[in-house]
Amino acid sequence: MKILASIAALIVAAYLLAQIFFPQAVSFVGCGIGRANSCEDYGAYLLEERDYEAAKKPFEKACEAGLENSCAIAGDLYYDEQNLYKTTKDKGKSARFYSKACELGAAKACYNAAIISYKNADKKNTFAFFAKSCDLGLGEGCLNAAVASYEEKDYQGALKFFLKSCDAALAEGCQRVGLAYSKKEFGEPDLDKAMIYYDKACKLGAEFSCNVVAAMNKINASEANATNATK
């Protein structure tokens, strides 16, 4: 029994030393026996070494085990539109990994899946992925979901997403809300509400909205002066 205990202690000690001095080897072995976190760690090590092609497999394995970040990274490695990684591209695999990451709650992956769907002229999935990215808190997804709704003449749906994009502090989203409250297609125009959102858009840097606010302030000042002059 003492001999077995000594052997076990040596194994544990060797493992701990290996974790300190050869962590990538430990991750490689752990990934080989199906440990998802080890696969993610080994993939991260390969990324640091810029061995992007080899990094795909461990991230794929980690993704299959349900690790959201690994799914998103695998999607990036297979998509690589800007050729940052110089790996073999596969848009089909990229879409699959982005979709999986999206299901697991990665907002940016939902957005990327929407972009791929858009390039494939798949309107239904384009909207669905943009809407999901919006639900997960990505303002750009809300804005694009709004534009997609507007193109389908779903004006109330568009307004809902434009409002969400404004809540996410996107200047264009606030400006589009201002425009919406100025147009009959969105319902009865409400210029007071429109100006509230133009003002928000202006404060976020939208030049057009600033011009609208300035013009309206000038009109209001002129009307006030005219009223005072008649008193």
Features:
mainly alpha; single chain; disordered N terminus; Serine Threonine Protein Phosphatase 5, Tetratricopeptide repeat; 231 residues
Number of strands: 0
Shape: elongated
Instruction: Determine Rg (CA atoms, Å).
Output: 27 Å
Number of helices: 13
Report the mean per-residue pLDDT as an integer.
Answer: 85
CATH fold naming of the domain at 41-108:
Serine Threonine Protein Phosphatase 5, Tetratricopeptide repeat
The fraction of residues assigned to DSSP E strands is under 5%
- Highest-level CATH class of the domain at 41-108: Mainly Alpha
Derived structural class: mainly alpha
Determine the N-to-C terminus distance: 107 Å
Helices and strands in order, then pairings?
Elements: H1 2-21, H2 23-32, H3 36-48, H4 52-64, H5 68-79, H6 91-103, H7 107-119, H8 123-135, H9 139-151, H10 155-167, H11 171-180, H12 191-203, H13 207-230
Brief description of this entry?
The protein has helices at residues 2-21, 23-32, 36-48, 52-64, 68-79, 91-103, 107-119, 123-135, 139-151, 155-167, 171-180, 191-203, 207-230. The N and C termini lie far apart (107 Å). It is 78% helix and 0% strand.
Protein described:
The protein is an all-alpha fold. The protein has a domain at 41-108: Serine Threonine Protein Phosphatase 5, Tetratricopeptide repeat, CATH 1.25.40. Helix content is 78%, strand content 0%. The chain is built from 13 helices and no strands. It has helices at residues 2-21, 23-32, 36-48, 52-64, 68-79, 91-103, 107-119, 123-135, 139-151, 155-167, 171-180, 191-203, 207-230. α3 packs antiparallel against α4.
